[in-house]
């Protein structure tokens, strides 16, 4: 009896806790929605309507029933002449029964424009009786307009009925609906916020571009009146010769079939064609983030290589990106490049710089020692990533690229102008010296005194830049992925877990203090493993002890810590993980960094009878396929290491859990990118687990709270980190802070400082992004 | 490092040389060939030729073959010099012998008439498969190849036939023979004109959209520029100390701005409009067994017998042809005299007047 009572009480408590959590969740969402809405209004006031629209839509995702949001969205849609947006907002209000009376006439017109004639008719019938009650309008005109709309809609409905019965498409002349400009003015509340700005011509006023077909009639006649037949071989040869011709004109890309694990998008293929056909191999690739500039550049390189036009190439990138590039070149394009990360470079620099295909850190290439070696030889092709680092012609970066002898040159940057139009001058001069004439000529002709970012003679500048620059936008590429949302779940570690973490930290700190930079990688890894699970760090300690640790004098401590790991069979994160799995049914991917952690979590899930598929590097290809198939068809949980899902379609899943967190934000982004990619139809939610007080806790505070990384567009975190001065990897920075600062105030201060740096970098990036959108817009799209 | 689709090129070159009478020896790293004198002269190459595809194998007396190399250019030029005409006859183990009414009902839509099958018979019919190269010229250029298949007897354009033809048994013929009379030739030419436009439009959809987008963008920029110019010119008029004559003169210029804008927009339209040129690359004349289906149509108090052709390659019925403009169609309209008309021509039957 008493057991039942206890159970009931527990159940009641659990229920209350759950309700409270849900309430907090909802409240947090509403707060966030409010924040986004106010940001939207601010941007709208500044005239940045696109940004305002984006923010408002995000606010509505979090709080879809908010009528104020919907009304403002409708107004914004009207101002932007985005009828689809306005229609969506008014439809939602109407569905709730909250459509203001003043907005009803506009809604009627929008329904008509959207060819929803039946609904339009119903709406008109509802609106007509309410006209007399509307304030301050020319009611007579309004009524006449609505009646005209009604007539038109009725006609269209009748016509459609006739067409479906007879198949006649052009039956009778239609009465015209209200001219657009008049109909919109019935919306009194929608006053212009400022002086009317010259708008682009509405699409309906522009004629369609014409298409004419001319046949070489004589050639056709000749063929058709021929009397002599040829052989099958000659026939096939002729067809093949035509294909060769097409490939020679770069119309048919020959590299496509040799790409591995990537599906190129049409905008990427067209960009490659344009670079080769139109720009003759010298171009500024300035696509918005996330559209695959790297892929475009490497496809171009591969095309040239396969055509025998490029036999030597140099790729210059920021130091932290060298290994990423090398991996991409090898894995996706089957191109082997020697890099400045290789031992070849360290053992014999002179020979290194003579190799045919080189991938180099810009900083290393431009050094006093290497500069002459790099520039003394010729390259068929040079690719420069993050080319905005070449914006100043007085820097060594710019001088290096300028001094290189090259045939083809690709400069990659999502932000070609950051502060001053001269930056684009400097970039274009590298590509085509003289394209923009001299610097003083450029200043006189294209720059406005007092505002270095406001161009004059836009048309002329556009024409000149259009000969060297491609800038595809996300809208053009139709990269339409639902948003992603994250939450940090901070878990209170068990006392033993705290002890383990502190002892590992102290050990690492102690070694680092005496050893300097020796064993840095090993020590950093220990700390990361400690943040992942006791199993992961325990395994490493076992290996160290078995294989002869380099830290002989600390062997006793290591053994003691290893024993502590062995005794820790539970993890505070596990119960939280279990909660998440139970609270939200559906497919989820759990990411872990280490194999030890994977085994530990797998055992835990088994103990709770939670079926799960496993994915790690130790499986053969067949087993990997099986596990993914299981996850797709039968099982809701996939537990995987970092390799999980590489090259595989996992977009059927939209929830992921980071059981641990890599210290490199790019790795985090790669994890997210497994599910948050083109083809994903649902919002992606990301749960980040971390132990309170751990390095990961501080990291999440920085990345999530300070710069909202998890809700950024793919590729943006890279842009932000790239703005931070210095060559140090982010993970190294974190590591240095942890080592160098004591617990409590000092550590908080150090992480806060890094947080402020990140925030400033983000603000700077956003400003640059807005500037580039304003400067270039859609003028350089395909 | 994978840098050799040149293997495909090498094979192409070897096949070409062989058809032109060269004697070849295939090696691991390339091809050695002994060329007839005329071929050697044409290719500007020695009588004994060694061709390789891999850069690493290049030597002084070996020709390296890659896209854009002079040797490849000459070979391509020679291979494309004449548009070849090939003839073949198809062979099938089995040809459909029933169920045509269901096929017709599934594929075709007849407006305001009803019909039924009268009879059908096995026949032989002829098709022409044309491989054509198109060049679409606008602000940029786009090239490509399309394949069109026509029934010579009816002039109907058969979608999907060229693709399915590759898996059918063919017996090639080389005897000389005139394949069609002038009427049929003209009909085919009209069909090529109409049918190729539709197919090319689909092929160059992204290109068209790109040009339309650029046109809209440039027109908007132009409009913006002229609005700003007008505003500037009008505010300049309000300056102090301008003579009446000067004001009049400037006002005239302002009045001419809309005309100028229209002219410029027209220029833009011409710039972005797409001109497509089609040339034939190869023609394949195909004779095949088929089934002719006679179908009785009843409508407007009249009867008419319409012929359908069952195509064993596509395993479907060939489209019908508009008696007015020659367009291939599956949605068939009829005038009161039961002339077969497409949706465009149905407004007014030109045959009835």
Task: Give your account of this protein's structure.
The complex is a heterodimer of chains A (782) and B (353). Chain A is an alpha/beta fold and 782 residues long. Helices cover 55% and strands 10% of the residues of chain A. Chain A contains 34 helices and 16 strands. Chain A is globular, with a radius of gyration of 31 Å. By secondary structure, chain B is an alpha+beta fold. Chain B folds into 3 domains: 5-81; 86-204 and 278-347, no CATH class; 206-273. Chain B is built from 8 helices and 16 strands. Chain B has helices spanning 6-19, 37-43, 70-79, 100-107, 161-165, 182-203, 205-237, 244-272; strands at 23-26, 30-34, 48-52, 63-64, 85-91, 109-110, 114-137, 141-151, 169-173, 274-299, 302-311, 316-317, 320-321, 328-329, 331-334, 340-341. In chain B, strands 5, 7, 8, 9, 10, 11 and 12 form a 7-stranded mixed sheet that branches. A 4-stranded mixed sheet of chain B has the order 1-2-3-4, with helices on one face. In chain B, strands 6-15-16 form a 3-stranded mixed sheet. The longest helix of chain B has 33 residues, at 205-237. Chain B is flat. Chain B starts with 5 loop residues before the first helix and ends in a 12-residue tail after the last strand. The mean pLDDT of chain B is 86. At the A-B interface, strand 1, helix 9, helix 10, helix 11 and helix 21 of A face helix 1, helix 3, strand 5, strand 7 and strand 8 of B. Strand 1 (211-215) of chain A pairs parallel with strand 10 (274-299) of chain B.
Question: In short, what is this structure?
Answer:
The complex is a heterodimer of chains A (782) and B (353). Chain A has 782 residues and is α/β, with parallel strands linked by helices. In chain A, 55% of the residues lie in helices and 10% in strands.
């Amino acid at each position: 009896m008493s057991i039942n009572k206890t159970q009931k009480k527990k159940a009641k408590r659990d229920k209350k806790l759950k309700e409270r959590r849900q309430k907090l969740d909802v409240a947090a969402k509403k707060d966030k929605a409010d924040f986004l809405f106010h940001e939207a209004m601010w941007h709208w006031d500044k005239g940045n309507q696109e940004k305002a629209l984006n923010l408002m839509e995000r606010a509505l995702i979090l709080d879809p029933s908010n009528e104020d949001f919907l009304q403002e969205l409708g107004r914004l849609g009207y101002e932007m002449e985005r009828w689809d947006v306005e229609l969506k907002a008014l439809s939602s209000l109407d569905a709730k029964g909250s459509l203001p009376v003043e907005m009803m006439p506009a809604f009627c017109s929008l329904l008509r424009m959207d060819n929803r004639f039946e609904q339009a008719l119903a709406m008109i019938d509802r609106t007509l009786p309410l006209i007399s009650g509307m304030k301050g309008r020319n009611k007579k005109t309004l009524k006449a307009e609505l009646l005209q709309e009604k007539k038109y809609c009725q006609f269209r409905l009748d016509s459609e009925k006739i067409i479906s019965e007879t198949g006649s498409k052009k039956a009778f002349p239609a009465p015209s609906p209200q001219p657009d400009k008049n109909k919109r003015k019935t919306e009194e509340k929608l006053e212009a916020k400022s002086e009317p700005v010259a708008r682009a011509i509405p699409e309906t006023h522009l004629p369609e571009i014409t298409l004419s077909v001319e046949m070489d009639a004589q050639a056709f006649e000749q063929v058709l009146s021929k009397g002599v037949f040829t052989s099958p071989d000659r026939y096939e040869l002729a067809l093949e010769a035509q294909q060769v011709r097409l490939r020679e004109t770069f119309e048919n890309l020959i590299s496509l079939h040799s790409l591995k694990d990537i599906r190129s998008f049409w905008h990427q293929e067209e960009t490659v064609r344009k670079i080769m056909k139109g720009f003759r191999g010298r171009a500024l690739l300035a696509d918005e983030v996330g559209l695959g500039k790297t892929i475009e550049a490497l496809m171009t390189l591969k095309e040239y290589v396969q055509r025998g036009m490029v036999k030597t190439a140099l790729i210059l990138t920021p130091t932290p990106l060298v290994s990423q590039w090398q991996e991409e070149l090898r894995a996706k394009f089957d191109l082997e490049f020697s890099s400045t990360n290789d031992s070849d470079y360290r053992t014999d620099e002179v020979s290194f710089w003579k190799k045919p295909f080189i991938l180099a850190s810009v900083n290393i290439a431009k050094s006093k020692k290497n500069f002459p070696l790099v520039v003394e030889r010729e390259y068929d092709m040079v690719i420069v990533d993050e080319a905005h680092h070449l914006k100043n012609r007085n820097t060594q970066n710019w001088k290096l690229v300028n001094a290189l002898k090259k045939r083809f040159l690709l400069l990659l940057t999502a932000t070609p102008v950051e502060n001053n139009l001269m930056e684009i001058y400097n970039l274009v001069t590298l590509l085509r010296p003289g394209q923009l004439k001299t610097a003083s000529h450029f200043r006189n002709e294209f720059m406005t005194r007092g505002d270095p970012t406001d161009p004059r003679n836009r048309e002329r500048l556009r024409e000149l830049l259009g000969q060297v620059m491609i800038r595809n936008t996300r809208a053009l590429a139709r990269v339409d992925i639902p948003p992603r949302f994250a939450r940090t779940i901070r878990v209170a570690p068990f006392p033993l877990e705290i002890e383990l973490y502190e002892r590992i930290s102290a050990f690492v700190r102690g070694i680092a203090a005496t050893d300097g930079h020796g064993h840095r990688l090993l020590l950093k890894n220990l700390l990361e493993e400690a943040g992942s699970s006791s199993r992961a760090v325990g395994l490493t300690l076992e290996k160290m002890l078995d294989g002869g640790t380099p830290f002989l004098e600390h062997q006793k401590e290591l053994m003691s810590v290893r024993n502590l790991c062995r005794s820790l069979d539970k993890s505070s994160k596990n119960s939280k993980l279990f909660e998440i799995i139970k609270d939200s049914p559906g497919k989820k991917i759990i990411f872990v960094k280490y194999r030890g952690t994977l085994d530990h979590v797998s055992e835990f899930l088994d103990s709770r009878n939670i079926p799960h598929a496993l994915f790690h590097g130790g499986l053969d290809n067949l087993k990997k396929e099986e596990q993914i198939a299981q996850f797709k068809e039968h099982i809701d949980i996939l537990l995987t290491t970092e390799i999980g899902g590489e090259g595989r379609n996992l977009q059927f899943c939209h929830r992921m859990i980071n059981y641990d967190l890599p210290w490199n934000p790019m790795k985090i982004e790669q994890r997210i990118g497994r599910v948050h990619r083109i083809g994903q139809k649902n919002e992606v939610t990301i749960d980040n687990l971390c132990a309170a007080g751990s390095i990961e806790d501080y990291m999440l505070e920085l990345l999530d709270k300070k710069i909202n990384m998890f809700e950024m567009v793919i590729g943006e975190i890279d842009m932000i980190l790239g703005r931070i001065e210095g060559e140090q990897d982010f993970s190294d920075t974190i590591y240095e802070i942890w080592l160098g600062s004591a617990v409590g105030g000092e550590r908080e201060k150090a992480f806060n400082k890094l947080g402020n740096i990140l925030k400033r970098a983000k603000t700077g990036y956003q400003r640059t992004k807005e500037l580039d959108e304003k400067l270039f817009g859609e003028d350089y799209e395909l | 490092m994978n840098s050799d689709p040149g293997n495909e090129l090498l094979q192409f070159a070897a096949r070409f040389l062989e058809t032109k009478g060269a004697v070849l020896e295939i090696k691991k790293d390339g091809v050695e060939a002994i060329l007839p004198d005329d071929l050697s002269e044409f290719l500007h190459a020695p009588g004994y030729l060694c061709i390789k595809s891999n850069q690493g194998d290049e030597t002084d007396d070996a020709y390296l073959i890659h896209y854009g190399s002079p040797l490849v250019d000459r070979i391509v030029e020679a291979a494309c010099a004449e548009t070849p005409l090939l003839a073949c006859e198809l062979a099938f183990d089995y040809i459909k012998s029933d169920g045509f009414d269901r096929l017709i009902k599934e594929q075709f839509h007849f407006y305001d008439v009803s019909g039924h099958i009268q009879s059908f018979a096995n026949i032989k019919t002829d098709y022409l498969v044309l491989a054509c190269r198109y060049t679409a010229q606008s602000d940029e250029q786009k090239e490509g190849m399309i394949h069109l298949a026509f029934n010579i007897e009816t002039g109907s354009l058969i979608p999907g036939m060229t693709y399915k033809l590759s898996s059918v048994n063919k017996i090639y013929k080389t005897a000389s023979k005139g394949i069609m009379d002038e009427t049929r030739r003209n009909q085919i030419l009209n069909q090529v004109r109409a049918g190729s436009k539709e197919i090319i439009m689909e092929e160059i959809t992204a290109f068209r959209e790109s040009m339309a987008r650029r046109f809209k963008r440039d027109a908007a920029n132009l409009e913006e520029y002229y609005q700003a110019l007008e505003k500037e010119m009008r505010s300049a008029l309000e300056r102090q100390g301008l003579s009446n004559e000067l004001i009049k003169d400037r006002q005239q210029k302002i009045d001419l701005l809309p005309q100028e804008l229209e002219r410029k927009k027209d220029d833009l339209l011409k710039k972005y409009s797409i001109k497509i040129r089609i040339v034939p690359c190869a023609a394949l004349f195909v004779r095949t067994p088929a089934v002719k289906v006679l179908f009785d149509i009843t409508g407007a108090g009249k009867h008419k017998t319409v012929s359908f052709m069952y195509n064993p390659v596509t395993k479907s019925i060939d489209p019908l042809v508009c008696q007015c403009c020659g367009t291939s169609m599956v949605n068939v309209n009829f005038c009161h005299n039961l002339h077969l008309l497409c949706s465009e021509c149905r407004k007014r039957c030109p045959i009835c007047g």
